[in-house]
Amino acid sequence: MSAHRKLYSPLLQMLACPFVGAALHSLFSLNYTGLEHIPQNGPFILAANHIKMCDSFIIGLATERLHFGMGKEEYFFWPGIKQVLTLLGAFPVARKMKYEKLLEKYGEEKVHQYLLAPDKFNYEEYIPAPLRDEILRDIQKTLPKHEIQEIKTLSSTTLGCYFAMKGEGLLIHTEGTRHADGIIHNLYPGAAKVALDVDQKYNTNVALLPCAIAYQEPCGFRSNVDVVVGRKIALQNYREETAVKDLTTTLENKLKELYEEAKMLANGNT
């Protein structure tokens, strides 16, 4: 078994899908458009907006190839919850803009256990101790140009690159947090950085796909929820020093277009 596959449970993911899917289908009327854009093989990134806590699970039902996704650091502060999320394929990302709120909520001791800095998660708290040496060796072999020295100081984008280089599907909520107003807010550059690193540093074809989710208004029992996946963005158009910024802007514009389409579908307007 490839080292990275020991970080999640394929069996748990396989078993969770029908149960979670049945629950979500009973609560909402789920509809998917553009699934043909998700590649049948090779790495891909679904860069999605974020409205409700269940977004990741609803989007996850779109394809059996989506094995990993970034989750907010706070979810990984608690043993038990951390292990379940890890087995389901989530990995933590530290959000600098939430650091002060985390300190207020959890206190310095707990926050400093899991965060090395406001934007740096301690990934020894994510990767189980028995796997750390094996995972570190595999990351160093897979991402030699990243010059990784230790597990603790990994970054979420480095892990994203590692999973992509292993041919996995990856979900990233690019706004960094939920926005219940449904408006697409400024995107963070993580999705663009992972895609460009994999494409340019390692000459590996990765599909960066915008993905919008929208809920019928008002949202209630059996409301429509529409997920729209867009065409992959041509990464070869971004080669300058401003590539990450420019690609993030393109991704944001495409996500806004898809969100308008998803809203129209969810509210029965075609």
Question: Could you give a short description of this structure?
Answer:
With 270 residues, the chain is an alpha/beta fold.
CATH class: Alpha Beta
Distance between the termini: 46 Å
- Unreliable residue runs: none
Number of DSSP strands? 9
Biggest sheet: strand arrangement: 1-9-8-2-7-3-4
Structure description:
The chain is 38% helix and 18% strand. It is an alpha/beta fold. The strands form two sheets. It has a seven-stranded mixed beta sheet, sandwiched between helices. A two-stranded antiparallel ribbon has the order 5-6. A hairpin with a 7-residue loop joins strand 8 and strand 9. Helix 4 crosses helix 5, helix 7 packs across helix 8 and helix 8 crosses helix 9. The mean pLDDT is 94.
Secondary-structure blueprint of this entry?
Elements (H helix, E strand, L loop, with lengths): L9 H18 E6 L10 E5 L6 H6 L5 E7 L8 H7 L2 E4 L5 H8 L1 H7 E3 L2 E2 L10 H11 L13 H10 L3 E5 L16 H12 L5 E9 L7 E7 L13 H24 L4
Parallel strand pairs: 1-9, 2-7, 2-8, 3-4, 3-7
Antiparallel strand pairs: 5-6, 8-9
